[in-house]
């Protein structure tokens, strides 16, 4: 990550409120994308009418986004396990084929 000396402030808007956030130039696009995603999630929660107040919307959005992240991490872990098993099976197949060729 770039040092704070290389960071500069960018403006983002969430729920109609503007924020200036220090961010390295190479991460600005990702930060803006994250802000748009958070803004969308918070507005979706606000539209339900069940949650009142920006702070509560932010907490619910954070909880929902964290849940999405954890689901993706579990899926990735599962895919890594499948890939490791496939690699192991491929190695065994290669070994058997080498042995068969040596017969």
TrEMBL record:
Protein keywords: Cell cycle, Cell division, Coiled coil, Cytoplasm, Septation
Main location, first listed in the record: cytoplasm
GO biological process, one term: division septum assembly
Gene Ontology CC terms, in alphabetical order: cell division site; cell septum; cytosol
Signal peptide limits: none
Subcellular location(s) of the protein: Cytoplasm
InterPro entries: Cell_div_ZapA-like, Cell_div_ZapA-like_sf, Cell_div_ZapA_N
Quaternary state and interactors: Homodimer. Interacts with FtsZ.
PANTHER family in the cross-refs: CELL DIVISION PROTEIN ZAPA (PTHR34981:SF1)
Family designation: Belongs to the ZapA family. Type 1 subfamily.
Described purpose of this protein according to its UniProt entry: Activator of cell division through the inhibition of FtsZ GTPase activity, therefore promoting FtsZ assembly into bundles of protofilaments necessary for the formation of the division Z ring. It is recruited early at mid-cell but it is not essential for cell division.
Protein name per its UniProtKB record: Cell division protein ZapA
Organismal lineage: Bacteria, Pseudomonadati, Pseudomonadota, Gammaproteobacteria, Arenicellales
